[in-house]
């Protein structure tokens, strides 16, 4: 399987190189970006010396389609929409990591991303790529989910599908490390603003709000809205979500853990924690794992879910490789079962 990576000089593009260069069925055929054409990737990123010595090439869709079997777009939202078009028109296998093909309701992308959407017929061709929910899919055009959305949806799926929580009671509090913002620095991502600090951002305006809601509504049409808040924390990678929802009927933590353990029994990348154990960032960093801990408070009748994942792996490149595996009929875990980096 020969692949091309467009947007390879960004953080998720680099993760694609790291993961795909260890994948037994994949050859990285070509690398592409906007501003670094004709540079060797290992000259820009010395950690890749001896691991990947490819030269970055111009983005020529016809050549890419001639030389490879699948293309990854690890490019910013708005850019992917345009770059994807020739591949979509040719029905060429494509996995896009941006938000450009995730929101299926007309007008939603413009509202939440504040820019022009891709053509609606292209958006509708893309399958939403939440890996654990799309076994045996034949789709060859995947809209890889957002990082927060991945954690929120994997955490809520068993409860929402089983209709165990009140549809208007879902509160999602997400905290992300800085690599989630991509490689281009800004005033708010300056070390002085971030180190030793913690800030809320995009209050009630985060673009993953409609993405999470869209999927939850497919599982339970009675869910009309969610509360979702995001914060920036001074770590390089990792997301921790704390999610609250009110139960319809009393339950025990043992029953809750049993529900999740049974739901995710066959899923290699979701690790349900035992009663009273809650995941941290270090236990998932560098890996494709999404870890979920569960609690129940009988006084408030609230369930609390604690979820951690690596935004660049399960939240981006790792899930994209998982989607390649599903698309190609490879075992879903192929090339992805590497232990998290600790300490
Ligand atoms: N970072 C994360 O944790 C996550 C990111 N995503 C999504 O994945 C995508 C990539 O994110 P991330 O890796 O953080 O982004 P970065 O900002 O780190 O990198 C962006 C990449 O896109 C390239 N690029 C930018 N503009 C263009 C253009 N006009 N034409 C061609 N290439 C271009 C850049 O190339 P050059 O160096 O030449 O400028 C660079 O390689 C985004 O859509 C993001 O929303 C999704 C989930 C998590
Ligand atoms: C820390 C930080 O800024 N994180 C980014 C997540 C990026 C992402 O996943 O964006 P897409 O949905 O466009 O792919 C954010 O909150 O916007």
From TrEMBL:
E.C. code: 1.2.1.38
Record key words, sorted: Amino-acid biosynthesis, Arginine biosynthesis, Cytoplasm, NADP, Oxidoreductase
A Pfam family recorded for this sequence: Semialdhyde_dhC_1
Protein name, entry field: N-acetyl-gamma-glutamyl-phosphate reductase
Molecular function terms from GO: N-acetyl-gamma-glutamyl-phosphate reductase activity; NAD binding; NADP+ binding
Pathway(s) annotated for this protein in UniProt: Amino-acid biosynthesis; L-arginine biosynthesis; N(2)-acetyl-L-ornithine from L-glutamate: step 3/4
Coiled-coil spans in chain: none
GO biological process, one term: L-arginine biosynthetic process
Subcellular location per the Swiss-Prot or TrEMBL entry: Cytoplasm
Family: Belongs to the NAGSA dehydrogenase family. Type 1 subfamily.
GO cellular component: cytoplasm
List of catalytic residues: 147
Family matches, as InterPro entries: AGPR, AGPR_AS, AGPR_dimerisation_dom, AGPR_type-1, NAD(P)-bd_dom_sf, Semialdehyde_DH_NAD-bd
Keyword Transmembrane among record annotations: no
Gene: argC
Recorded catalytic activity of this chain's protein: N-acetyl-L-glutamate 5-semialdehyde + phosphate + NADP(+) = N-acetyl-L-glutamyl 5-phosphate + NADPH + H(+)
